[in-house]
Amino acid sequence: MNAYLSVWRLRFINGMQYRAAAYAGMVTQLFFGLVFIMIYVAFYGHSTHEQPISLKDVVTYTWLQQIFLAFIMLWFRDNEIFQLITGGNIAYELCRPCGIYEFWFAKLLAQRVSSAVLRCFPILLIALLLPQTYRLSLPQSVTTFMLFLVTLLLGLLLIVSISMLIYISVFWTMSPTGSILMIAVAGEFFAGLIIPVPLMPAWLQQASYALPFRWTADFPFRVYSGQIPQTEALWGVLIQLLWLAALIGFGRWSLNLALRHVVVQGG
C-alpha cells in the first residue's frame, strides 16, 4: 500500500507543476461553460413545453461539468502508459514488486486530482459571482452537499476504472486511437456531457441508466442540485459501488490475461 500511496503523491506533485496549462484550460472551460449556458437559456426561452429539468438546474449541471472536467473526461490519457505497452518497456513494469493494475490506477487517479485542484477553485469562484441566470446555485443542504462529495469521489474512481480498460485494450490493438474514440465518445454522451440525461428521449435515458457512464457525472451533479432525492441518492451510491467492483474485477482479470500472452521483443 505504501508503494501506491507514494506513486500517487509523486504524480500529484508532478501534476501540480503544470500551472500554465491548467490556467489555459481554465479559460477554455469558462468560455465553453458560458456558451453552453447561453444555448440552454435560448432553448428554454423559446420552449413551449415544460422540461423535466429546470433551467436553474441545467446551469448548475453545466458549471459542475466544467469545474470537475478533469474528474469526468474519458479522453484524458497518459501517453507514458501507452508507450510502455506499444514500445515494449512494459518489461520494466513487470519487474516492479507491486501490482501493475494498482500502480497504474494510482498514477491515473493522481493526475486527475492534481488537474482538478488547479482548475476547479477559480472556475467555482467565478461561477458563483455571475449574474443570476448564469450563476452556479448552492446545494439545498449540508447533507445534500456531503452526498454529492461521496457520489463525486465514487464517480472519479469509476472513471479511472473505465480508463484502465482503454489502456488494457492496447495490449491487443497496439493502438490507443480506436479505444479512446469508441469509449470516450459513447461515455461522454451517456454520462450527460453532451446534453443532460433528463433532456434525452426516454429510450436513450433507459440506455444511459443501464451503463456505468451515467454514474460518473450525471448522477453526482443531479444529487448536488437536489433533483435526485437523498433516499434515491443512497441507493445510487450502492449501485456505484457495485459498478466499481465489477469494473475493477474485470479490469484486473483482463490485465492478467493480457500479461500472460504478452511478448517483449529485443534485448
Automatic annotation (TrEMBL):
Keywords carried by this UniProt record: Membrane, Transmembrane, Transmembrane helix
Entry keyword Oxidoreductase: no
TM segment ranges: 21-46, 58-76, 116-134, 146-168, 180-204, 233-251
Recorded superkingdom: Bacteria
Cleaved signal peptide residues: none
Keyword Transmembrane helix recorded: yes
Name of protein: ABC transporter permease
Organism: Paenibacillus solisilvae
Lineage start: Bacteria, Bacillati, Bacillota, Bacilli, Bacillales
